[in-house]
Amino acid sequence: MTRNGYFTREFFRFLNELNENNNRDWFQSNKERYRIEIQEPLLRFISDFAGPLSDISPNFVADPRPSGGSMFRIYRDVRFSKDKNPYKTHAAAQFRHRAGRDVHAPGFYLHLEPGGVFAGAGLWHPDRTALDRIRTTIVERPEEWRAVLDDPSFADNLELSGESLKKAPRGYDPEHPLVEDLKRKDFVCVQRFTQKQATGQDFFDEFVECCQNASGFVRFLTEAIDQPF
Q1: End-to-end CA distance of the chain
Q2: Is residue 64 over pLDDT 50?
Q3: 1-55 per-position pLDDT tens digit
Q4: C-alpha 224: how far from its chain's center?
Q5: What CATH architecture applies to the domain 9-224?
Q6: Which of 36, 44, 70, 84 is least surrounded by CB atoms within 10 angstroms?
Q7: Could you give the 3-state DSSP secondary structure of residue 149?
């Protein structure tokens, strides 16, 4: 179904201007613009995605609250960063598993940045226990893992991303035929979009289709960490 577009040229123009004026005075002077041009369209997108997401899986959440929901805060955590700019220069949302408490849970993801729009899915920086369970499941169910990655809907549209070890993890065969996947520290996939696509009327449907294409991948990972898909 084609819908009206959510993200306008003004959406990306605001983020560009924020990148050039990343300070509290500028942001406070333009806070109403942020609410109208960034926050409201993204929250509407999140709210509308709840229905299609429940069709993919009833265990993932699209929460349109302005605080504490699926939308990430615009404020950066600068406590342990050399970069002290107070604001993110992108907008993003994560649709995580009901059992997840933070960004490291299984989920679907949308990233909106001038010149850098992409959708993602999977587990980013899973903890040691989850990482070991995923690796063990790949070893125990290699044909199922291969089938997920080789499915045309996945292979033709999404690419694996994230960090990997240089060597096989301790306890795993360095000669295993899937050793490159066992080296992964992140189990995420991405599909990239142009800014023109993101401002188009079909972008919502394109994002839904991306999540559908990634659903087998997310199912495998979710079940590997003993959660229901």
Answers
A1: 25
A2: yes
A3: 445 689 999 999 999 999 999 999 999 999 999 999 999 999 999 999 999 999 9
A4: 19
A5: 2-Layer Sandwich (3.30)
A6: 84
A7: helix
